[in-house]
Amino acid sequence: MSEKLTFAPISYTGWDSLSHLVEEVNRFNVNKILVITDPFLQDIGLTDKVTAPLKEAGYATDVYTEVVPEPPLVVGEKLVAYTRDHQFDMVIGVGGGSALDLTKLAGTIAAHEGDVADYLNLTGTRQITKKGLPKILIPTTSGTGSEVTNISVLSLETTKDVVTHDFLLADVAIVDPALTMSLPPKVTAATGVDALTHAIEGYVSKNASPVTDALALQAIRLISQSIRTAVSNGNDKQARIDLSYGSYLAGLAFFNAGVAGVHALAYPLGGQFHIAHGDSNAVLLPYVMGYIRQDCEKCMKDIYDAMGFSSTNLSQEEAAYRCVDELKRLVEDVGIPSSLKGFDIGENALTSLTKDAIKQTRLLARSPMPLHEEDIYTIYHAAYEGK
Ligand code: NAD
Q1: Which residue has a Cα nearest atom 32 of ligand 1?
Q2: Considering the domain boundaries, does residue 348 fall inside one?
Q3: What are 11-26's pLDDT values in tens digits?
Q4: 296-329 pLDDT per residue, tens
Q5: Co-location of 197 and 174 in the same domain
Q6: Are residues 212 and 343 located together in one domain of the fold?
Q7: Which of 118, 137, 206, 368 has its CB 3.0 to 4.6 Å from that of 147, i.e. a possible disulfide?
Q8: What values do phi and psi take at 159, rounded to 5?
Q9: At what angle do helices 210-232 and 237-257 cross, to 10 degrees?
Q10: How far is the CA of 314 from the centre of ligand 1 (A)?
Q11: Which residues belong to any copy of the Fe-containing alcohol dehydrogenase-like C-terminal domain (predicted)?
């Protein structure tokens, strides 16, 4: 068996890696740059760290600040129209996954005919045929891995859908943990567990390979050893560095191996209840892994060890069981509700959540255990009850 692995962008990682921005922009023959970010990051001066050196180097920069968390389709349509109208030479995304996903859309879809909706995975009818503008992606959360994936996620009325193509990939990713120091505990927790979920789902995925396994296990180690500290003491530089590398590695792992059941069940929580992506993944992670663990016990044992525990004197079955317990403990320790009730979701919502989750066939196909409608309902029910 062989596999295709894509590690596309030139990446700069580590503390102060943003200092490489201008030298990278200089490699492209550009003048007019659109910087895409959210209003909060603009207000706290984070975006200035990107625009100031660009302006100093003589580039014309326009800052677009209409990014919102979990961006709805209409926000993507508006940004693409803006990009088309203003003839930019390059797009730079600064922010969490929401800003980075929109930047990928702006750079590529603006070079095409039609609406963003025409290119959605589940319902779109048009094909992406060209790369569009060069893209630089600069994450300010340690979570989504969007800087290394070819995916843009959009919120629809009751669920989420993606635009996905290798032409969406960044040309350059700059993953500087210094930009994450201002993340509040709640966002640190949700985005950090999002990254952990990417690594875990990538590791147990049916599409995993020795390369993605190496990335995923190191991501699990780094995230597990740093997330509690990063949440309780956001000024801890080493915890921020570890979480940043963990998120980047998890992004590379899941982009190549895929995510599965947790994400399939999380998307409707985001769509129907507007729960942040990281929180949706976090609340479901222990329940999905608990349900499927008998079909991936060896992987769960490895995950347990990578989380810093020892399975040496345990059977595979016992280690997998304890792994699920530790995942639940981790989610609770970082302050995320451990049941759907904690997000004010009633039992009457479980059927409609199930109906939307079952549509995520691309994700569900990678689950080590096949998940049918009744399985999905059972998992939601366990997550609702919190047991
Ligand atoms: P986000 O981008 O929505 O940001 C969440 C909040 O954190 C915002 O209010 C933002 O202003 C704030 N924030 C960001 N950086 C900050 C900083 N350094 N200091 C203080 N506040 C900061 O959150 P996210 O979890 O990074 O992204 C979520 C989006 O990414 C969702 O739409 C999700 O579906 C998508 N996603 C995409 C991929 C992919 O591969 N493309 C993967 C997973 C998730």
Answers
A1: 70
A2: yes
A3: 999 999 999 999 999 9
A4: 999 999 999 999 999 999 999 999 999 999 999 9
A5: no
A6: yes
A7: 137
A8: -150, -165
A9: 150
A10: 38
A11: 188-384
